[in-house]
Structure formats: structure tokens, C-alpha cells
Amino acid sequence: MTRKTNWEEGFAAWITQVSLTKQAFEWGVCDCCLLAADGVLALTGVDIADDFRGKYADKTSAFALVSSVAGGSAVVDAIAYCAKKYALPERSNPLFARRGDLVVVKNNDGDVIAGVVSLNGRDVICMAEEGVITLGISQVVRSWSI
User: Fold this and answer.
1) Under the phi-then-psi rule, with left for phi > 0, alpha for psi from -120 to 50, and beta for the rest, what region is 65?
2) Which terminus of the chain has fewer CB atoms gathered within 10 Å of its CB, N or C?
């Protein structure tokens, strides 16, 4: 998978849109996995969440889908499945994640959620139950190169 020509411009526009709309967390509409997939979509034009998007509406159905599609029980399993399906190479050291990379991070509550590395390369853009947040790159636990 390759980034679009002038990907920084499209990614910056996506970040601005996400920041300005203040989208609320909603399972199956705007949750951590779909927000991360939307970031990848802005970078590449490819929807890595195509096996999940529009197919769940609450936490129970989301994790049932993760189990049936990805064979797992956690957010990281869904993200790893999508990364593998689209041949995104996992970084040997997750802290080497770069701008636009797909990541999973440990949030301040200790939960593992999905996100994408921002243009500054130091923050991760994520959707948490309180809305869009940024976390430090030091909280990344797995990362895949885009």
C-alpha cells in the first residue's frame, strides 16, 4: 500500500476535519478503529476497515465481529488483522512509528486503542470514549508502516 501523492496535504485536511467537527465516540460510526482506518484512508485512498465498517453498532457486536473476522478478542486483534490483510509491515520497534503510521497505544486509563501518528511525529490521534484525543508516541505498543 502506498501513500497518495501529496499525502501530507490530505492527511492535514483530515486532521483538521477531525479536530473541528468534535465527532463523538460512537460504536460502528466513529470509534478508535474506524478513526484510525479513516486516517489511513486519507493517506492512501484504501479503506482497511472494509471487513468491519457498517457491520456493528455497539460494543458487544463490535467484539463479536472482531472474534469472527479476526479470530481475536481485542482492538489490537482487529488492527493486526487489517494490517496483515493489506500487507502493512509491522515495525520491529513500535516506538519507531512515523507520521501517518497505524498504531495501537495504551491510553491514560490503561486501555489499548487504535490511532495514527500525527504530522508532528510526536503525537497519536485517537478516538476515546471522551472524543478525539492525542497521546504521546511513547505510549505506542504496536505500529505498522503505511
Assistant:
1) alpha
2) N
| pTM flag (> 0.85) | yes
Residue with cell 496535504: 9
Give the three-state DSSP class for 123: strand
**Separation between Cα atoms, residue 128 and residue 49, nearest integer Å:** 18
What does the pLDDT look like over 19-71, one tens digit per residue? 888 889 999 999 999 999 999 999 999 999 999 999 999 999 999 999 999 99
Q: Domains of the chain by range and CATH?
A: 7-144 (3.90.1720)
How many of the other CB atoms lie within 10 Å of CB of 10?
17
